[in-house]
Design brief:
single chain; 184 residues; mainly alpha; 0% strand
């Protein structure tokens, strides 16, 4: 799960570096790594929003309160990121012209596609594996509890026979022997 607070902190840090660079007259090309970090963080925010809209089943059941909290965090982060995007768009359009912003958007789309193909698919595979293992674990616990109850029933039944028929100790043995009898 992508943490929206961390993604927003990364985006804000990169945005501040970009903003200072533009104020001091640096060109966009020299701030490529900062723009990449900022765009990657925005992509992470979008992914966090998608994950908050469709949380896994176990998270809905176990962490119901945290889903609402996470949705609020994602919403606030998205609003702040939108403000950053608008401010950066204005800076770039005023300093480099409107076509520079369109070039930046094309670059952002390419970065998002690459991140979608690599990072997010790996995270999705890990999440699905975790959910499958959790389901298998729950089924194993359920089966073990049923077998445990059946074993307790059988032991209690044998103890009850010996309690009600203390003069016939072979009754318990014959009960177990009858249940494990091999066909001839």
């Amino acid at each position: 799960m992508i943490d929206p607070v961390t993604a927003l902190a990364t985006a804000t840090t990169a945005f501040n570096v970009i903003k200072k660079g533009l104020q001091f007259g640096r060109d966009i090309e020299s701030m490529g790594s900062d723009l990449g970090r900022w765009m990657g963080a925005l992509s992470d925010l979008d992914k966090a929003e998608q994950q908050a809209r469709k949380p896994p089943f176990w998270k809905k059941v176990i962490f119901a309160k945290s889903i609402e909290q996470e949705a609020i965090e994602v919403f606030a982060a998205k609003k702040k990121a939108q403000n950053q995007r608008d401010e950066l768009r204005q800076w770039i359009q005023f300093t480099l012209g409107p076509s520079a912003w369109q070039d930046l958007i094309k670059t952002e789309v390419d970065i998002r596609k690459r991140r979608q193909e690599t990072i997010y698919k790996q995270q999705e595979k890990k999440r699905k594996l975790f959910e499958a293992l959790a389901i298998i674990f729950m089924i194993a616990i359920f089966a073990a509890s049923i077998l445990g109850v059946a074993w307790l029933y059988r032991v209690n039944k044998a103890n009850a026979l010996s309690m009600y028929f203390p003069d016939r100790p072979n009754l318990v043995y014959s009960y177990y022997q009858s249940s494990y009898r091999q066909p001839f």
